[in-house]
Design goal:
six-stranded antiparallel beta sheet, three-stranded antiparallel beta sheet, 5 helices, 9 strands, globular, DUF4390, DUF4390 domain-containing protein
Length: 200
């Protein structure tokens, strides 16, 4: 008895092997012809309650045409949101020390049968579905009351910062597509760090 394939698996394999993959690579290398997308950290705010430091932030996500096409052909996309608390070292030429950190991972999928976009928090397993990608992306960009560090760990007289970045996890892509993604700016979706001062 043959093992059952996961739903959509055959469709994904056909797409990865077919001409769409080559066409996507060709399109991605022609400047100005495709939307290459952008990730950014719009704003953020720190607060304290009951001895815990919390972060609220808004992130803006715009997927590239290549990433959107891949997702709508069955390729899950994994988005990473990384938060770090750093302490400034006494020597200015040395990297700041990371004293706390956490990573949130979300998976974006398109279900062709239901025509729904599904956002799954891979840390908790919670999922939500949306009728459009434009409805999903703002939900992905909302960070509310995220605990980042216990205030007791902050030493008086030291300088601390909380920093946040988000990126598309290229390593989570299927192997054939991963090779393409490493060569294309359309898959290099990374906000870079944005940081805020944290007073002990």
């Amino acid at each position: 008895m043959r093992p059952r394939r996961p739903p959509g698996g055959g469709r994904l394999q056909r797409w990865l092997r077919g001409g769409l993959l080559g066409a996507m690579l060709a399109a991605a290398t022609v400047a100005g012809r495709a939307d290459e997308g952008a990730f950014s950290v719009r704003d953020g705010e720190l607060s304290r309650r009951d001895g815990i430091v919390y972060l609220d932030a808004r992130l803006d996500y715009r997927l590239s045409d290549a990433a959107t096409e891949a997702m709508e052909n069955g390729v899950p996309l994994v988005i990473v949101q990384a938060v770090q608390v750093t302490r400034e070292r006494l020597w200015g030429w040395w990297w700041d020390a990371v004293v706390a950190g956490l990573t949130r991972r979300h998976r974006l999928q398109y279900h062709a049968l239901s025509r729904r976009y599904v956002l799954t928090n891979l840390n908790t397993g919670d999922s939500r579905s949306f009728r459009t990608l434009n409805a999903l992306l703002p939900a992905l960009g909302e960070i509310e009351d995220l605990p980042v560090i216990d205030s007791a760990r902050l030493q008086p007289g030291q300088r601390y910062r909380v920093r946040l970045a988000t990126r598309l996890d290229v390593d989570a892509l299927p192997r054939p597509l991963r090779t393409v993604a490493y060569l294309s700016d359309a898959w290099a979706l990374d906000s870079g760090w944005r940081q805020w001062e944290l007073t002990p």
